[in-house]
Amino acid sequence: MSRNSVEWEETPNFPSTHYVDTGIYTDEKIFREEQEKVFNKVWIIACHESELTNAFDYRTFSHPGGAPLFVIRGEDMKVRSFYNICPHRGNTLLYDPVGNAKRVTCIFHAWSFNAKGDCIDISREKQGYQERYGCEKAGLREVKTEIGYGGFVWVNVDDDSCSLSEYVGDAMGLLGEHLSEPMEVFHYHKAVVNTNYKLWHDTNSEFYHDYVHYFNRITGMIQPGYFDRKYTGYPHGHASVGSMAIKYDAYEGSKQRGVGWPGLAPGGWVLIDMFPGMTYNLRTSVLRMDTAIPLGPNKLLIEFRGLGLKSDTPEQRAERIRDHNQIWGPFGRNLHEDLLAVQGQGQAMRERTGSKWVIQGREENMTIHDEGGMRHFYAEWSKLMGRKASAPYADQATAAA
């Protein structure tokens, strides 16, 4: 039965925790508030330690809170992060996304810094500043950095934040033993999508969307135990989905994977969503890490990394790369379908042609098609933002209460 314009915007007959206003995906003011209250307060994955193999290797990183950063391995092999901004006149220091820099020199006035963030040279220092200002006062702004949970480099721009271990808590329990061996990135790619970062994380947080994937329908959904997998929510908005074995040979032309993963059953699958936009996705032979970096309320950069074991033989690595490219990577069967889905959502909401509400009302005893993972995410979002996701424009004090 179709609905008229009034019925189209009627509030869903659910508790307010079971739907959200689409304005939270498109509103510029909401996005700026998210940068301040969410992204600038939480731990974010910037890269993987294997991408900084040698002393002075660096990677630039556009922090979702808005700050340009770079991550660099020092001569002491410690990884540190800094604002990618010269303290003199605010110029960008490093322009290339990756590189090696024993000495970081600003192209504007040739001030130089080492990999520990110390200023080591100010051009014509004594002539210009005499004794009033010197290198000891001109160091780079450092950002809290920790390596953990599979060798990923996490950053937090809030000096008063909790530690990474406190932030993660028990959320990584299902993956703990599977991340014990050193890993390295063998594939990196990125996608820029006209959508909101929460829509991508929503897709990773619920498996009702498996209906969009032909491959998943015939290798996962028909297998015993698929609908029994349980969602578990953790503090700080993280969530995990219980593991299960996937029968890849159920698809004609596919085969059971010949190379596995330490501690993981053949065909095993474990997924953990980390608030506010990172997903560990371990399937049989490859760990895929998704990191969502919003460029605005309606534009999203997603970084995808495929990882194998550092100890891989050439034959094992080739098998992992084949698995990644056949199923989970940019040339595989799943990813493009997910990207098309969230692009369509973003377009409809941006043009206000969609419904005023996004419904998250499925309840199946917190099993895999229950939308409890999304509700758990928006409970944390509402807490940090001080406003309900279902009523983002209400008085903030009322919404928080």
What does this entry look like structurally?
The protein has two domains: 44-156, Rieske [2Fe-2S] iron-sulphur domain (Rieske Iron-sulfur Protein); 174-385, Alpha-Beta Complex (Naphthalene 1,2-dioxygenase Alpha Subunit, Chain A, domain 1), CATH 3.90.380.10. It has helices at residues 5-8, 23-26, 28-39, 125-129, 164-168, 197-205, 214-219, 314-328, 335-350, 372-385, 396-400, and strands spanning 19-21, 44-48, 57-62, 68-73, 79-83, 98-100, 104-105, 112-113, 119-121, 142-148, 152-156, 183-193, 231-233, 239-245, 268-274, 278-283, 286-296, 299-309, 357-359. The chain is an alpha+beta fold. It starts with a helix and ends with a helix. It is 24% helix and 26% strand. The strands form four sheets. A seven-stranded antiparallel sheet has the order 2-11-10-5-4-3-6, with no helix packed on it. Strands 12-18-17-16-15-14-13 form a seven-stranded antiparallel sheet. It has a three-stranded antiparallel sheet with strand order 7-8-9, with no helix packed on it.
Q: Beta-strand level of the residues, as a percent range? A: 25-35%
Low-confidence stretches: 250-254
Distance between the termini: 37 Å
Helix content: 10-25%
Using only C-alpha atoms, the radius of gyration works out to 23 Å
CATH topology of the largest domain: Naphthalene 1,2-dioxygenase Alpha Subunit, Chain A, domain 1
Number of helices: 11
Task: Write down the secondary-structure element order.
Answer: HEHHEEEEEEEEHEEHEHHEEEEEEHHEHH
The rough form would be described as globular
Please outline the major beta sheet: 7 strands, antiparallel
CATH superfamily of the largest domain: Naphthalene 1,2-dioxygenase Alpha Subunit, Chain A, domain 1
Assembly type: single chain
How many β-strand stretches?
A: 19
Major sheet strand order: 2-11-10-5-4-3-6
